[in-house]
Amino acid sequence: MHNNCDRKRYECDKCQKTFSRKNYLKQHVLIHDGLKPYTCDICNKSFVIKGYLLEHMLVHTGEKPHECGICGKLFARKGHLNGHMLIHTGEKPLVCNICGKSFKNKCQVNSHMLVHTGEKPYVCDICGKPFAYKSHLKDHLLIHTGKKPHKCTICDKAFKQKSQLNSHVLIHTGEKPYVCDVCNKSFTRNDYLKQHMSAHTGKKPHECNVCSKSFAWKSYLRSHMVVHTRKKPHECGV
């Protein structure tokens, strides 16, 4: 009986990674050499391994040969199908080695790590504000462009972010999915629930930087600031 050591006989002399077949080792060495001998004849993109080129060709053909056996959703790549299957199984096999939080895929882990490192690699080229996530930068750019791409199909009101649209739609449906576990009062938005919880906890996290008076709700703090600024934003139209 052969063990794993017997099966993995071919070792890369640059990184010591081992392979069961010599041709696998040859393909791997191309990574170190920087060679990409397999080129797409449609868009000229190059690949290290022929299998990667074959997968890439599905982008041009539109084929999705990998089907989910549970919901029937189709995927171009087997790796994408494997990632999708975690939705059905509920598995989160990748764990953050700092806080122990679990994730479904490596992309989620990499995004999460920015919480620990404090990195903000995505920078707005208009105002220079940095963001940890590309999606946050995209949302931010709408401030500069003024675009509101997410439109309600019921009343045509438009929003900058999809999450804002999702919250708005609850007005039409009457749903209040966020429920207080103390008094069972329900809310359309999670931030409304968080604000409500201060009534039970007594916390007042919003503090005036002029007189240090604290408030449970941010809107109460804004109203209070008028005392210091003497501004009267509400004008009688008559």
Automatic annotation (TrEMBL):
Domain C2H2-type per the UniProt entry, residue ranges: 10-37, 38-65, 66-93, 94-121, 122-149, 150-177, 178-205, 206-233
One GO CC term on file: nucleus
GO biological process terms on file: negative regulation of cell differentiation; negative regulation of transcription by RNA polymerase II
Subcellular location: Nucleus
Example of a GO MF term: DNA binding
Function comment: May be involved in transcriptional regulation.
Protein name listed in UniProt: Zinc finger protein 658
Biological source species: Stegodyphus mimosarum (African social velvet spider)
